[in-house]
Amino acid sequence: MAILRVKDVSKRFGGLKALSDVNLSVEENSVHAIIGPNGAGKSTLLNCLVGKLMPDTGSVLFDNNSVLGLEPFQINQMGISRVFQTPEIFGELTVMENMLIPIFAMRDGAFRMHAYETIASEKGIVEQAEVMLEEMNMVDKREMHAASLSRGDKRRLEIGMCLSQNPRLLLLDEPTAGMARADTNNTIDLLKQIKEERDITIAIIEHDMHVVFSLAERITVLAQGTPLVEDTPENIRGHPKVREAYLGEAA
Amino acid sequence: MDAILLQILNGLDKGSAYALIALGLTLIFGTLGVVNFAHGALFMIGAFCAVSVQKLLNLSFVTLDETQKDFLGNPLKVETPYVQSWFGPEVGATIIDWSVPLAILFAIPIMLMVGYVMERGLIKHFYKRPHADQILVTFGLAIVMQEVVKYFFGANPIQTPPPEALSGSVDLGIMIGFDTNAIIYPIWRLVYFAFAVGIIGAVFSFLQFTTFGMVVRAGMADRETVGLLGINIDRRFTIMFGIAAAVAGLAGVMYGPLNPPNYHMGMDFLVLSFVVVVVGGMGSLPGAVLAGFLLGILESFASTTWATTTIPGINQIIIYLVAIIVLLTRPRGLMGRKGVMEE
Amino acid sequence: MLGLNKKDTSLLIVVALLTMLAPFILNPFPEGSAMAQFNAGYPDLMQRFVIFGIFAIGFNILFGLTGYLSFGHAAFLGVGSYSAVWMFKLLSYNVVPAIALSVVVAGLFSLLIGFVSLRRSGIYFSILTLAFAQMSFALAYSVLSNPKFNLTNGETGLQVYADDPQILQGANAPDLPHLFGLPMRSTYTMDLGAWSFDFNAGYYLCAVVLMVVFYLAIRIFRSPFGMMLRAVKSNQQRMNYTGLNSKPYMLAAFVISGMYAGLAGGLMAAMDPLAGAERMQWTASGEVVLMTILGGTGTLIGPVLGAGFIKYFENIFSKINDNVLHSWFSFLPDGLEDAVVFVIHPFIGKGWHLTLGILFMLVVIYLPGGLVEGGQRLRGWFRRKKKGADDAPSGKTEPAE
């Protein structure tokens, strides 16, 4: 069953047509990659999915509910978590606090005035955060300010924050952009491990072919704002149209 | 009809001052990305340039005139300003009479220097600091400037009269076909308006037609890219800060005859000028000018007897009310661009 | 204790001791001695310490936690004062309903202003709050003091007149603000040798209120809500993508800090039943900003320290005049003495604002963390000196206070 359905989505910026008639479905429990050359409309598409941009036409359905016109926090509450290209974390807060916030958000919703309780008294939530830190291998860093983490650890923390909410769909926006090879491989391993351990759908936007072919079960190639082909990695690799639009650019 | 026209005209002088201050604020905003809470103080310093020039020109030496006696029978003390003794009584008197316009010549280098020192000495270090810090440090600077002026010139307003020839009123009504005495308008207000329009025109043509201006405008649109082109933006921005300071200063110099300068006039104008910038649209130069004049005129309409009897004190709050309504309906202001000062 | 951890409990105890023993602590110099002018233990000044402390604690909940810089908080203080005086006029001189109403009215007023101002962030927010405060000032000063509808009594200031209803004012109740019969002005003076200490009822009311609201501030700082506010400051984007709506969090923080300001205004009126528009002017808003950053933005104790520091030096600096200076520097040769006095003269007496402005700049430039950070740096410096170079500072960063 498709968990995310994008139907006939178009988006113009002035004279520029960023997306035209994009149709796409992401199957539940799959890893779906969206690739394409620079300017293909990948980021625009992603922003349409998370409430940052409003497409001009078309619809976006998550679990058969429309997400169009909703605020990012509402879309998150529906079960979509997003990992950004450069890790977006709470730099001035400790690693532990970073982990607590999404768990509070999951339990209490978009707003709750819990101004008199202490954090320590929320034993269940603290426990969940500790489990998550353990899973992310960051227990020893729990009292550090998140801003002082290494780039790889920041990425790990951000993914952990998203996972702590048990999202049904995890959106990753070029998760390895600007990373050294070793960090990239670590991230790939982490994502593989996540996929093995939980029932989760992952949609990933990526430039790096290595990442895409190591992870994805299905790939959609976007070029000039339209999906060119959608297929398995094996078939995409040899597809003439893709070579022309995407790999040809790299050669 | 003539009453409406009169109110529009009455709004022009304040509108001019708002427009000039808001223009400088926007220039600094757009180029340096700094919120300058000391901009009102620059306006005030300009006004006190005029006060200083007037005081300097009036510096006198005392002679005893044996031919005349005061009521105690002592020789009369006569004060002769130095300028009169140097240039002859008549030319000297004229120079003193024209002290406010003359102060422009004095104020331009002073204001450029103040702007330069302020930018290099203080503002420069705050480019990368949060907006809150910029606001706070310039706020502190504004207090310091204001207190220094108060220390030297006292707390009371100081009269700075316009030149004799420009001090009366004219009957504008007759010129455009209304009845006599329908629109009596002080000449200095016209002068101030024309002066403001001149300065605004000069700033705009400078930005429009010089390469320097072109780079500055490009920098306002996208600082990083222009920096990548290998153009030394910082130096140009320093000069821009000086120009913005000079614009505020000149607005202050010429404002003296309309309202005697006092040390806190800068703060009074600053708050309103910020509101003007917000209404006009952060980062939009035409917006700042347009909103300045619009709000000045609106304030003048709200000051009519009819308005103040209907809603007492409406003239005091009209600008804030308009600002709030504009911000709620058009958050970017009248002519604001997307992405300017939006975190 | 009281649901606080050890560190916070000791902080609370320190604050409690300081406020309770303030009449002693602030009067270290014997009456009549040359140093007596540095004493600060008289009721009026002590009340101001505590009231501005409350104001700054509240402001810090907004600015310190969320990073939103409001330039209009004096408006809430003013509204609080006006509400309290109206209670005196209509009900009675009992301070309890007056203070309660000032908190409620300031809360409602800040809800309204916050709702509009928080539609924009960053610099827009600061300007909006500033504009609102100036508008409130103009309203109080002129618009709402016309004969038809006199809510503020304009320039004269709102005060209680003999023909006011005061429907609940008992026949025997004191004819000035009191707490169930205990007049705020009543002072017990204890003479101990050359020293004299004032124990003022009004001060102790303020001090108790301060301790309660300080305790509440600690609770807010340590709560999940407080953590969310810090998250707003740190990264609003991540917050929104984590399923949290930052708007109501901000608004709640704004209203809480507005209520603190209203409480301070109410107490001010309770100490002296008079409310004037100048309390709402933006320089007054600037002052609370200064107190907060001078003490240490985002720290618990900072705003209280900042408020005390500024009010103390305002008082001392305003009292010093050239004669005092001459007596201090009389040991210098005549010419030098005059020169020194001449240099210092602009900064004292009426020049206090100049000193304040310079202080403001210096703190923002060199000590953005305020006195608390300064203290920490000093402590760290001493420690390093003691331990010597053998153990380098540990890389572990401590969580922010």
What can you tell me about this protein's structure?
Chain A is 39% helix and 25% strand. Chain A has helices spanning 42-50, 72-78, 95-108, 123-135, 151-163, 181-197, 209-215, 233-238, 240-250, and strands spanning 2-13, 16-27, 31-35, 57-62, 65-66, 80-83, 169-173, 201-205, 218-223, 226-231. Chain A is globular. Chain B has a single domain (2-56, 107-329), classed as ABC transporter involved in vitamin B12 uptake, BtuC (Orthogonal Bundle). Chain B has 15 helices and four strands. In chain B, strands 1-2 form a two-stranded antiparallel ribbon. Chain B has a two-stranded antiparallel sheet with strand order 3-4. In chain B, helix 1 (2-32) crosses helix 9 (211-221) and helix 8 runs antiparallel to helix 11 (233-255). The mean pLDDT of chain B is 84. With 401 residues, chain C is mainly alpha-helical. Chain C is 63% helix and 6% strand. Chains A and C meet through helix 2 and helix 3 of A and helix 7, helix 8, helix 9 and helix 10 of C.
Output the keywords.
heterotrimer; A: 251 residues; alpha/beta; Rossmann fold; 2 domains; four-stranded antiparallel sheet; 10 strands; B: 343 residues; mainly alpha; ABC transporter involved in vitamin B12 uptake, BtuC; two-stranded antiparallel ribbon; 4 strands; globular
Give the topology, please:
The complex is a heterotrimer of chains A (251), B (343) and C (401).
Chain A: E1 2-13, E2 16-27, E3 31-35, H1 42-50, E4 57-62, E5 65-66, H2 72-78, E6 80-83, H3 95-108, H4 123-135, H5 151-163, E7 169-173, H6 181-197, E8 201-205, H7 209-215, E9 218-223, E10 226-231, H8 233-238, H9 240-250
Parallel strand pairs in A: 3-8, 3-9, 6-7, 7-8
Antiparallel strand pairs in A: 1-2, 1-4, 4-5, 9-10
Helix pairs in contact in A: 3-4, 3-5
Chain B: H1 2-32, H2 39-57, E1 60-69, E2 75-81, H3 82-87, H4 89-97, H5 99-121, H6 131-153, E3 169-171, H7 172-175, E4 184-186, H8 187-209, H9 211-221, H10 223-228, H11 233-255, H12 265-280, H13 285-302, H14 305-310, H15 314-329
Antiparallel strand pairs in B: 1-2, 3-4
Helix pairs in contact in B: 1-8, 1-9, 1-11, 1-12, 1-13, 2-5, 2-6, 2-11, 2-12, 5-11, 8-9, 8-11, 9-11, 12-13, 12-15, 13-15
Chain C: H1 6-20, H2 22-25, H3 43-66, H4 74-90, H5 95-117, H6 122-143, E1 145-146, E2 149-150, E3 158-159, E4 178-179, E5 182-183, E6 187-192, E7 195-200, H7 201-222, H8 224-234, H9 236-240, H10 246-271, E8 274-275, H11 282-295, H12 302-319, H13 322-328, H14 334-344, H15 352-366, H16 370-387
Antiparallel strand pairs in C: 1-2, 3-8, 4-5, 6-7
